[in-house]
């Protein structure tokens, strides 16, 4: 099947500033593509280019097999949900949703039918006569979705649609969007700042930085095998621990040596990866460091560590200690007895360890 | 074709206004520049004679007076209107119960033209009829307020009436500005232990810089164009002590039948406008580029 | 059917009534009169409107114009020729020569006179003069003496409104009185540099400075009619003003010769201010017919009498019966014919009869600047010469 | 915002109350300054001419009479017609209402383009238009007269409307532009994706949002146009003269008898519509200014 | 020791609307009190009342033992950090921080010393000459903190200071604030929307709703023993599963019966709680439902459940199924093989179970 969205060598400049540099992405029908990256990296710009709201400087964009590079937004068969919702402030919810159909000359009966359908789906039937100003954030968000849903487009574009919501509502809406995607089997491009959102929603994640794509892959790939230091640090919360270390070969295995303040270096043995350079940066997620006795497996090794700070967070407790000159966070179970200033035996699970080159930041294993 | 139209519709919409301005503002300025180089008298003539009109202009003591007056009047008018407007805005911002009424009282002079109010002001300021006579009538025989009839001071009465007319509008601008300052900043300052007057002087007023700029532009526009004001209040007198460039130019063009001279004075006026507006536009454009 | 759109600045009650007479006659002769009044600044605003109208190719049919301005507009090639009417009615013989000259442009007739205002009048409160034993002055020295006496008695000698045109009005009567008719003509009509810088002119400014002392403190910007009211109310003794001031006295129910006195200002001569209508080039037979009819009616004896009775001036044509007019008008008429013979019937510079706008304006600037400051007479004379030169 | 005085209102000690009094007294004094001319005009208009000639101008009228008002409205002579201000009043309405509407609408469109549909050079065009606000009107009188003649609009009400629209454009565009730049660009984008075009977006989305700034613009334009004398006197002819010209004819006659009471009554009548606009819409005026036009 | 903040019977009306109803809170020196609650519940209002920025309608507030009810804000010896930071826009960072001292007449040397101290602590030394407009969100936040820190007040008030930051920065700043609290041992009142923030920072949490306090307690109490359905649902992310169930006594233990669609009811046995009413709502956190075999203990029971949706979220995977007519979320390990539509054996850990009365919502155990 032809890709639903195919971006080739896309370039976008504002004046002489290059905002997007040679972007190549393609997604299949039914894909849920999530764009992540730090603020200002060009996510919204890319979305705007796809929608045709910004002229592009180079490359091509095709949607559902048709070259759309020069086509105006209204003919691209897309629907877009904006970060700020961009609801029409003077129109009622119903009119907000039907405005697009009205503009397109859809007949009144169809408009009403569609409106009822979508309103039911989003549970906003009782709000149809209100103005956007009289809605809560979550309700607005649903109206913005509704405006997109009545369209039945080839492609949905979402620009951080949940960023204005409070945590609770965000979780609910996230589930809602996920269901929507599954029910409609629609193709979506979704921008977010929130890694959890990215991880839970995406079938494919694109990590960008400074207008350049850093990695494209499934959520698991991005999470478990980040392509470089930037991705490793960016994805996951709390972030992956990135610890400078030295390696030395020891038989078939590799020994990883990590400096510790006022104590002997910590030595871990990795049996899976060989041929590493002498200096590496070791990447280990907080959940791969547990309290000794709470984790087992081939690659688990135990060592005492000095606890600096304890942060209980309900379901888990995070413990911070110092390794290799860095603060290292471990995720412990909620009932841990760890106390700041005391040593605690910790289990390091190396089965999903990552290594990066200190100079280039590229992944080594 | 329709694709083209669709893409260029904003330009097409702007075009008529733009062309109108181009012709009716810039075209006419060019026309005036041209006429200022001729010996036009009663009606415009188009034979260029060089800069004689400018020479005549700079030789005329009355023009000197007019420019001096513009400087005095402009400075005082703008400064006083701003200060008074700001003061009134601050006073009105103290949760005054009758704010609506008082605000309207301060604002209404802007609604009246000076043709209307000039006579009233003339009486009020006239020593024999107005304030001086009234205060003397109360028994203060030595009270003196005769600026209107004093060649050296008459220009200040023009300032009084001008301020009367415009300061309400400036107040409205500042009041709007005060109302749009973030309330949390003021709360923060209160918690920080800053007394009210320092909150205004150190925090709110400095943050209203754009409004000062707007007010300045509106006021300088009024100052330069002030014509009715002078005609109605002093008629340019005593003598021509309160002449402004605008009245000078009008007199030349329409009562004296000396259009060439009027055109040259208009060009100088426009140069003054230019000197004020261009920096403003520059900052405006830069701001637009930044956002 | 004759049509006329008439641009004028006679808008106040008395003036308007006077024009209405013309309009009625016009209508009685089957014409349609469209009124286009624009008041303000002694016709400045009307001139603004006129210029715009002419430039837009939409000139009014008839316009209140006077003095050299008629010739100026003629030179722009926008005036119509009404010689046919004038010659048929024999205007040349009905008008004093100097006034007729104003109505002619390069030999053809281009305007019709309505009235003759005399400018060099001095008005006085009869009671005050009697109480202080003062006669109407016939020389400036007498005037000065009378003024000193009045001042000593606590009465403001001269009621004056400090507006440029009023300053200029006083100035020209002083020029006429101090320098005589010939000097007046040389200085204010021919703009002779020698005359302008002469000692006589210095003396004129000296007299102006003296007169400044006779004026009360609040004169600046005062309307002329308020000054007249001061004379009426006994706050001041004299006012120097054209004969339209009479209308103000009359409106208050005062009787000339009893309540108030009129006399020409000291010195020989007669400064006239002739209102007239000029006809502009217009398209359309009805309008051209309107112009002819209007010209004829304006010079008609009936209109000349009625209008001037209302307005306080005297008829421009010399053959009108003056029986219905008051004593001041009689004086004016007699003086007009007398001075006309003696060659001292002179155009008023202050009212735009003598000079073109630029020059008269330049002179007024100096006069008013001198009067409203403590400039020395010598400086004023020098400035006057410079200003006149600069205005050419 | 600044509810500094409300804070701790309960703890209002003596000094608080004193401060409050000083505040109101100050406001009152300024109110006097602003009201004085109106007071003089009003009292004079209610006096008889005799009383004006003899009494003090700033005194209250001894006998209140409304004759002057009647005369000013329907009896005063503005030339040979003695119909008062009445006919001219309607001329002004016929000029001001369409001129305000057209210039506001055009300003809204222009502001919409400049703020929301930026294209290359839009800012330059905007600044050029802005400069148009500052041109002294005396400068344009003569060339404009020629142009109006060429257009066949000389002396007509459409001609006057045209002139006011042209020279109002700078300000109306400025007002709307400054208001529309505060509206997020996403709104246009959303509507574009929805399939709406330029005019549709303006009409359905921006215009309904613009009430505050429309109020500001209408007040400003109405005041300017209603009070205009220079254009009114230059570009009108008999039958199309606006009220300011008539007012001037009543007030500014040179050699006639002056009826100050009528003058003042006429002045107030001529100012009534603008006064009314300020009183009625004054509240929205501040609000509109707050809503955005205040910025630079 | 006297409480540092003592609020008694506080009432606050706007006009006739009661915003705060009979609030009683007291905190000890060194306490970190976090206020949470849905939008509009009166958190900011309460903070403003404490600061003296809003007059109160009834009750009293004392700070450090002194009655402050009638005292003006500047004399209350408090410092406040606002949600929008409320930095003085025209002043440099240094002036923003020192302005309060300057006004209070602190001498220049002390000002400089304080400024240097605080700037070092917050790592904003290099920003001192910038204007707020030239700072990023996180930097602004730190300046706002700096302005409060130079004060050395009896009490710090924070109104959602982190809500404007992106997720990454928020985590960093949270740690920063925590350290600050520990180092200064200052007393703080902190408003937030974010439960993680609440859980990690607080020594004491106040949960509010509609101007009424729902529960006051330590984070662990609030998390593990919510006082009512509202608190149970509000705290924790994903939220606690609240499942309607029937109970029946069975010997010393209680049997909990939960309906399931198209399957037999699920029966769980609780040996800890007795004497429950027949109808209850069972509260179980997602982390207390695991994949069978991954959890052990006295109170763990296993049952097959039909999986509806699988949400991998990096460190964990959430699985949704249907129980008692509600969606129930379970937190599974990242490597789970659960697939939508298939049955999965799940372990229910009842050691921290909560029961609520369906009508009143009050906690039963
Ligand atoms: N109209 C414009 N002119 C010039 N530069 C622009 C314009 N719009 C955006 N930029 C720049 O382009 C870059 C990318 O902006 P974009 O809005 O795509 O970022 P983003 O990834 O969406 O960030 P965020 O997560 O903050 O929304 C930014 O550096 C921004 O400053
Ligand atoms: N000045 C006011 N006048 C009337 N009602 C007000 C005023 N300020 C706030 N309210 C109302 O008081 C209630 C509490 O507001 P408050 O700002 O304290 O909520 P909050 O808990 O801080 O909410 P959020 O989390 O959204 O900041 C809200 O319903 C609000 O509408
Ligand atoms: Mg973005
Ligand atoms: Mg709040």
UniProtKB/TrEMBL annotation, chains A, E:
Keywords: ATP-binding, Nucleotide-binding, Transport
Domain ABC transporter stretches: 5-235
Keyword Lyase on entry: no
GO MF term set: ABC-type transporter activity; ATP binding; ATP hydrolysis activity
Pfam families per record: ABC_tran, OB_MalK
SMART domains on file: AAA (SM00382)
GO biological process annotation, one example: carbohydrate transport
Any one of the GO CC terms: ATP-binding cassette (ABC) transporter complex, substrate-binding subunit-containing
Domain of life: Bacteria
Record carries keyword Nucleotide-binding: yes
PANTHER family reported in the protein's UniProt record: ABC TRANSPORTER ATP-BINDING PROTEIN, MALTODEXTRIN IMPORT ATP-BINDING PROTEIN MSMX
Similarity comment: Belongs to the ABC transporter superfamily.
Descriptive protein name: ABC transporter ATP-binding protein
Lineage, opening ranks: Bacteria, Pseudomonadati, Pseudomonadota, Alphaproteobacteria, Rhodobacterales
From TrEMBL, chain B:
Record-linked PROSITE patterns: ABC_TM1
Membrane topology recorded in Swiss-Prot or TrEMBL: Multi-pass membrane protein
Family note: Belongs to the binding-protein-dependent transport system permease family.
Single Gene Ontology BP annotation: transmembrane transport
Protein name: ABC transporter permease
Span of domain ABC transmembrane type-1: 67-280
Localization annotation: Cell membrane
Automatic annotation (TrEMBL), chain D:
Alphabetical list of SUPFAM superfamilies matching this protein: MetI-like
CDD domains in UniProt: TM_PBP2 (cd06261)
Keywords: Membrane, Transmembrane, Transmembrane helix, Transport
GO CC entries: plasma membrane
Family matches, as Gene3D superfamilies: MetI-like
Any Pfam family matching the protein: BPD_transp_1
Compartment(s) where it occurs, according to its Swiss-Prot or TrEMBL record: Cell membrane
Organism domain of life: Bacteria
Keyword Transmembrane helix carried by entry: yes
GO BP: any one term: transmembrane transport
Transmembrane segments: 21-42, 93-113, 125-145, 151-176, 197-222, 264-286
Residue span, ABC transmembrane type-1 domain: 89-281
The family this protein is said to belong to: Belongs to the binding-protein-dependent transport system permease family.
Protein name (record): Sugar ABC transporter permease
Source organism per UniProt: Marivivens niveibacter
Taxonomic placement: Bacteria, Pseudomonadati, Pseudomonadota, Alphaproteobacteria, Rhodobacterales
